[in-house]
Amino acid sequence: MSTLPGRPAADEYQSFYAGYVAEATDDDVVTLLETQMGETLALFRGIDETQALHRYAAGKWSMKEVLGHIVDGERVFAFRAFSFARGESQELPGFEEDDYVAAANSDQRTLPSLLDEYESARRASLALFRSFGAKEWMGRGTANGSEVSVRALAFIMAGHEAHHLRVLRERYLG
């Protein structure tokens, strides 16, 4: 049923997310999300458990924590998209990323378990986005005090992950 949503207009998301939307470089966001899944899995499958605990500086997240954060972001953005596509009128809360990362205990998990969770979350997001028609893609709602569209959330999801993959390559693996 999915129709390609096209890139979101600047009024469909808070300016804070403009960098993420810009990092989603393909106008076909569903294909981008699928391709990105392969890239993320390949990147993390190329490192071992010890390397996955690396932090590039004191107080920064480990590579496992970055992956856990990507999964958290995936779920939050997908839930928002699901909610607004279904016509939710209640404002959805924000999430404090540092609190979520601390609560996730990603460093105590195996890298394969984190990758399984990532892949499951991404496949669920892809199935959700593929179910949308034009009306659902254009849905809007309020999250964290700001209006956002469903299609913007898909681009934000892709750009958020692209941002963290770039940081991993530059600061952790560089």
TrEMBL record:
SUPFAM superfamilies: DinB/YfiT-like putative metalloenzymes. Pfam families: DinB_2 (PF12867). Gene3D superfamilies: dinb family like domain. Residues 33-167 form the DinB-like domain. This is DinB family protein. It comes from Eiseniibacteriota bacterium.
